[in-house]
Design a protein that fits this description.
By secondary structure, the protein is an alpha+beta fold. The protein folds into three domains: about 1-125, no CATH class; about 160-230; about 235-355, Histidine kinase-like ATPase, C-terminal domain (Heat Shock Protein 90). The protein contains nine helices and five strands.
Length: about 350
């Protein structure tokens, strides 16, 4: 659009010089030729066709002197093409310079000077706009990098806070278990001993009530401790630690895709089955790779543990209830929280697959 404005100004500067010509048709033809060549140069921008047209238009100044009055238009395109020397043949006009009036020559040179000045100013402006655009892009990129880094730092900070919270919960559960739990256990034993040696019937009922109260308190403490401990488990970190402890013979791949809102019993069940599955793979698998996938779906959790060892000799056999203590324990764990687990041996490896519904 800026080049269109620039050319419009050049046309306006050329018209007075053309109007001073004593001929009727030559100025109009010269203007039409120059405008057409300028339009063609715009279309073939950067191509040899544009350069040839501009050069021919400059050569015509020697044959048709009035064309020199339109040189500002041609020079404008030549400068845009970075080939100003294409207009040098226009100097041939001096052979027939008598055909032009003094004012036409002056107006033509004024137009040429104006074309050079406008080009220099527009070129400088385009460079500044380019630098500003580059600066804006750099700032935008750095802002995006900063935003991404801030998000990573926030996520890391949130994770540290969560781990610290889980660690504190575990500490509190351990303190309650070691201190309050032991005191209550001792109080229950002491109360039972007093009940045995008590001979006063009036104290029998109060002692029974005291024993019942202590038993209720112990049950409540146990429940609270288990809840605190179960909620303090970081399932992903626990599985990652199990993976890190695997024999170097195996390459372990973990794909964990679940949120943080997982009940303690699901965490314990999943961790136990993953541990047992890894142990079985290390002991019995002839492969070198273990894949672990734990995903959370809208209605259930899904666990997959598989290795690439050859289990062809187990194909066709029912392993449910007959797979030894390890597989039996995994079945019991899954059934205990309403889940379903299957074991699939094949020539490509051994697969453990479990689903646990969220609502049980």
């Amino acid at each position: 659009m800026s080049r269109l404005y620039e050319k419009s100004i050049m046309v306006l500067l050329c018209i007075p010089a053309l109007a001073m010509s004593g001929e009727l048709y030559a100025p109009v033809i010269a203007l039409l030729i120059s405008v057409s060549v300028s339009a063609a140069a715009q279309i073939f921008n950067g191509k040899p066709a544009a350069w040839v047209l501009l050069g021919l238009c400059a050569v015509m100044c020697g044959v048709m002197p009035v064309m020199f009055c339109t040189m500002p238009i041609i020079l404008c395109d030549a400068l845009a093409e970075k080939k100003w020397w294409l207009t040098v043949p226009a100097a041939a006009v001096f052979v027939n310079i008598d055909s032009l009036s003094t004012w036409q020559i002056i107006m033509s040179f004024v137009g040429i000077i104006a074309a050079v000045v406008i080009y220099l100013r527009i070129s400088g402006l385009e460079k500044k706009v380019g630098k500003l655009t580059e600066l804006r892009d750099d700032i935008t990129e750095k802002n995006m990098q900063l935003t991404s880094q801030n998000l990573r730092l926030a996520a890391a900070q949130d994770n540290e806070v969560r781990l610290a919270t889980l660690k504190e919960r575990n500490r509190i559960a351990r303190e309650i278990h070691d201190n309050v739990g032991h005191m209550l256990t001792r109080s229950i034993l002491q109360t039972g001993a007093i009940q045995i040696i008590n001979k006063d019937e009036t104290l029998k009922e109060p002692l029974d009530e005291l024993r019942a109260t202590l038993d209720g308190a112990m049950t409540s403490i146990r429940t609270s401790v288990h809840d605190l401990h179960d909620n303090s488990i970081d399932l992903k970190k626990t599985i990652e630690e199990m993976c890190a402890a695997v024999d170097d013979r195996f390459k372990v791949n973990l794909n964990y895709d679940a949120g943080e809102d997982i009940s303690g019993e699901v965490k314990l069940c999943t961790a136990g089955i993953v541990k047992e599955s890894i142990s079985n793979a290390v002991k019995h698998s002839s492969g070198d790779r273990i894949n672990i996938v734990f995903r959370e779906h809208p209605a259930f959790f899904q666990l997959l543990v598989e290795d690439n060892g050859n289990c062809g000799e187990l194909q066709g056999r029912s392993l449910s209830g007959h797979g030894g203590i390890g597989l039996g324990n995994m079945e019991d764990r899954a059934a205990g929280i309403g889940g379903q687990i299957t074991f699939t041996p094949s020539e490509d490896g051994f697969r453990v697959f479990m689903t646990i519904p969220k609502e049980r």
